[in-house]
Amino acid sequence: MHPLLRTLSQSATAPSRGQAISHISIASLLYLLTIFVFSQQGLISQQAFLGGASVLAGFLVLFFVLFWFRINVRFREPSLTFAQIAASVIMMITVSCLDRAAQTVFGPFLLVALSCGIFRLGARALLLLAIGSISAYLIMILARNFPAGDNDAFRMDLLQWLIVSLALPLIVAVGKEAGQLRDALRTTHWQLQQFEEQAIRDELTGLYNRRQLQTELDAAIARANRHGIPFCVCLIDVDHFKDINDCHGHLVGDLILREFARIASDSIRDSDVIGRYGGDEFMQILPDTDLKGAVMHAERLRVYTHFLDLQNVLPPHAISLSIGVAQFQPGEAVTTLIERSDTALYRAKERGRNRVEWIDDY
After folding, report:
1. Catalytic: which of 243, 280, 360, 361?
2. DSSP states of 131-181 as a string?
3. Most C-beta atoms within 10 A of its C-beta, which of 11, 46, 166, 212?
4. At what angle do helices 250-267 and 291-306 cross, to 10 degrees?
5. pLDDT digits (tens, 9 = 90+) for 204-234
6. 152: annotated active-site residue
7. Domains of the chain (ranges, CATH numbers)
């Protein structure tokens, strides 16, 4: 996948423990730092700062516990972005309640807090946060000036509220566009995955194709040369496959290849690799496996395939495999390794087919 798309895709997923509360909590800490500076200048009371610090500390502890013990994964939104932004707004409203002068920094930091949810929340969630924030803000202003208060201060409060209310729809609109971009990114990510799978898979069997086998083989050789870990290659051929195609048709031949691919896929380890090398020939790469272990695995696969139930399409014929096995030797070229396994496969055919042969010399 393209690195840019991978980065954007990862940013749209749920964050890890350490990243989960970073952006929103940093915004809240910056707000509290601003309140602290104002309080040191005598513009905002110490009581307002301490009240905000207490609320923020409580929420940080709560979210830390939720993320540390992975309780957050039980929620529909594991990142808890909505809850964290709501907590940040509650903290700022608390400070504004304690000191009217704190309202001067409420508007800008409210926009900052909501912007933290643009790339994680949908437009509906952002709209709900925006409506809840300005409603709480308005209730606080009305409660402070009820039943009577300073008319000039009241008008100033309402003017600040109006400015914030006019700015919030822009945040929601940007969030909506970000959501559409996020959806398009997910679709593109899924399409790229499908294209990548099609590029490395054989269309008939669903196994790796020859190009991907070459890539996996190069990687296995690099690991073996670097770490000295043995691995083996098995070349597998379906016996008399041309005769089956000629006598029973290509549809039966395709069905046999698909059934063999299924049996082979079910019999390998997670670390093993198998693919269609060409026609009725397959290649299996067995990492961290010596020659003896590879021969045993090949023999088991041969027996499984021999007892494959194909009576409905190929009565009473049972298919068999010829398998050639070779172990990689340090410093060996990939072409030499394939030639040795191919020699073992040819030997199996010469000796009557339906057998496993191996090359143990180099």
Report:
1. 280
2. HHHHHHHHHHHHHHT-S---HHHHHHHHHHHHHHHHHHHHHHHHHHHHHHH
3. 212
4. 130
5. 999 999 999 999 999 999 999 999 889 999 9
6. no
7. 3-197 (no CATH), 210-359 (3.30.70.270)
